Amino acid sequence: MFRRRREPVPxxxxxxxxxxxxxVTPPPRESLSMTxxxxxxxxxxxxxxxxxxxxxxxxxxLQPYKxxxxxxxxxxxxxx
Length: 80
Fold this sequence. Notes:
The protein is 42% helix and 0% strand. The chain has helices at residues 12-16, 34-62.
């Protein structure tokens, strides 16, 4: 009934991509070695430890300031 009109594309392989089906299966993924697993774990732990450390050191700065009972005065005003 309605025929879809194809628009010109700059690359021929893009136009033919919807028609092309490959019958070649990709090779299976290689399993990770123990060294790679250890390295990835250490990198992950380092990132997590950095985030936790920044939270621990940053939390006091986020707390509201509580003034002590003594009013603060500068040393310059003590001699007056």
